[in-house]
Amino acid sequence: MHKLNGCGISSILETNGYVATMFDSDADIQREQRLMATVDSHTFDALIIQPFSSVAKINATMR
Known about the structure:
globular
């Protein structure tokens, strides 16, 4: 467990050897689907998401 001490998630990730990558759908569902397909086609250790569409749509896109 990390104490945040005013640090953002990127700082915490970098301290632990990870690099944060951000994608912004700009509230566009079609763009969000393309971005999720891109994420799904690459190797990431984790995903932190604030979806514009439903979680079910995100899951369907990433299958």
